[in-house]
Design a protein that fits this description.
single chain, alpha+beta, BirA Bifunctional Protein, domain 2, seven-stranded mixed sheet, five-stranded mixed sheet, 13 helices, 31% helix, binds adenosine-5'-triphosphate
Length: 440
């Protein structure tokens, strides 16, 4: 990693602490001592996570006429997971350290126990990562259900439904954003790997002859999505899997990798899955999942190109890459240089004092901006401290209402990154913020 940029060794701790202290991400069930690598998203985190998912949906669904969305069930019957191959092969190799008894994923530890340094392990066992539960009040085989370990299968099992109702034809895609569950053996690194997480997946169905072109297309588009939302080029790379490392269904897989504080690791995977999924489900269900191309008078099983991203993992990468410390007026300030589309609050309205006249004008400012931008409102502490608090959570614009406002009907707009302050008339404010965010 000789060409890798130098990172603050405490970055992960700093971001984890900031996330907790300011209400992005809390440990789940914290008042009971927390619960096994699960996390809750607080008032700022829920805004930011929603922004990440919206930014994905906008580019992947809203702005494209060749993709439609679905929202499928999380609970599913064993038949789906037998056909998809998850019951048989969605496993990690599990080993126990003979000395300290800790349990590890064999492929992640290079033969040395990270806890005690021992090299003595039990034989590896295949450990299925799916959470098993039961649907209904009766126990037994007929009631078995699984929590989905990926959102993708909902797109395959609904392929015929979507084809029949949406009037789309290949090349076209079905997209979904939602929760997935994996009983990970070694979760960790904050929300990088958790047992409950959110995915953003597209299954793009194409004529087999076009598969390779679309595979390249989606790799390029997905890489650029992260760049466009502010991750620096030095912190992103593509990693194409060698043929011998591919999963059994894959004809090509490329990961978008991010330079995390512990090194390069996966952010998203883009795979050419061939006709594996539709063929499996057609065989197992007895329902044809072919496409009949009337123009060509030809029947075929589409190939699938799958860009599969994690929403919670992407949010963590955006937080890590946005974290900066710089100097303003002789003091160190923490600033999250988040793209305005991802920031939990895009605007903060700050009346200089609690005087009712100033609060009244501030309410008017909020009425103008809140329908279009997520707004925070803060009246306590000195204005300098309030700017710092907003910098630390990544708010791109602070609007100060002061006593001059009562005379001239103008407010001060402060830019997070340059700290530059500009006087703007209230009637021009919406246009001003829109222009600053490139919307005019
Ligand atoms: P890994 O090899 O790291 O376990 P994977 O290659 O099995 O992951 P995929 O099945 O390709 O992951 O899932 C697609 C995306 O979903 C990943 O790139 C990641 O962003 C996200 N993801 C997968 N598992 C988790 C998890 N346990 N926690 C958070 N995000 C996850």
């Amino acid at each position: 990693m000789s060409d890798a940029p130098i990172q603050d060794p405490e970055l992960l701790d700093k971001v984890t602490n900031l996330a907790k202290r300011r209400g992005f991400i809390f440990q789940s069930a914290e008042i009971y001592g927390g619960f096994r690598s699960t996390y809750d998203y607080g008032p700022l985190g829920v805004n930011m996570l929603r922004n990440v998912k919206n930014a994905w949906w906008q580019v992947m669904v809203q702005q494209r006429m060749d993709v439609v969305g679905i929202d499928a069930a999380i609970l599913g019957p064993p038949a789906v997971w037998a056909a998809s191959g998850h019951l048989a092969t969605f496993t990690d190799p599990l080993v126990d350290c003979r000395k300290c008894k800790e349990r590890w994923r064999e492929d992640k530890i290079n033969g040395v126990c990270p806890n005690c340094g021992s090299t003595e392990f039990t034989e590896a066992r295949a450990f299925n990562l799916m959470f098993k539960t039961q649907a209904g009040p009766v126990e037994g085989e007929g009631a078995t259900a699984y929590l989905r370990p990926e959102t993708a299968q909902g797109m395959f099992t609904n392929f015929a439904n979507v084809l029949a109702t949406s009037r789309k034809k290949p090349p076209f895609g079905i997209a979904q954003v939602g929760k997935s569950f994996r009983n990970e053996i070694t979760p960790g690194n904050f929300v990088f790997r958790t047992r409950e997480f959110e995915q953003m997946e597209l299954e793009f169905f194409v004529p087999p002859a076009e598969a390779d072109t679309w595979y390249r297309y989606w790799i390029d588009l997905r890489y650029n999505w992260y760049l466009n939302l502010g991750i620096a080029k030095d912190f992103l790379r593509l990693h194409e899997h060698a043929k011998e490392d591919l999963s059994h269904y894959s004809r090509g897989t490329t990961d978008v990798e991010f330079l995390y504080p512990w090194g390069w690791d996966e952010l998203e995977g883009i795979a050419n899955r061939g006709d594996y999924d539709l063929t499996q489900h057609a065989q197992a269900s007895g329902v044809s999942l072919d496409y009949f191309d009337q123009a060509e008078n030809e029947r075929y099983t589409p190939y699938v190109i799958e860009p599969a991203a994690g929403a919670t993992r992407a949010m963590m990468a955006f937080l890590l890459s946005a974290y900066h410390e710089d100097e303003v007026e002789g003091e160190t300030r923490v600033v999250l240089r988040l793209d305005w589309r991802l920031a939990p609050y895009q605007v903060a309205v700050l009346p200089l004092s609690k005087k009712p006249e100033l609060e009244g004008v501030s309410q008017k400012v909020l009425e103008v901006l809140a329908p279009y931008f997520t707004c925070d409102y803060d009246v306590t502490q000195s204005i300098g401290k309030r700017y710092r608090r907003q910098d630390e959570i990544g708010t791109p614009f602070c609007i100060t209402v002061d006593f001059d406002t009562l005379e001239d009907g103008a407010v001060t707009v402060r830019d997070r990154d340059t700290t530059e302050q500009t006087r703007v008339k209230i009637e021009d404010l919406l246009g001003d913020i829109r222009a600053r965010t490139g919307q005019q």
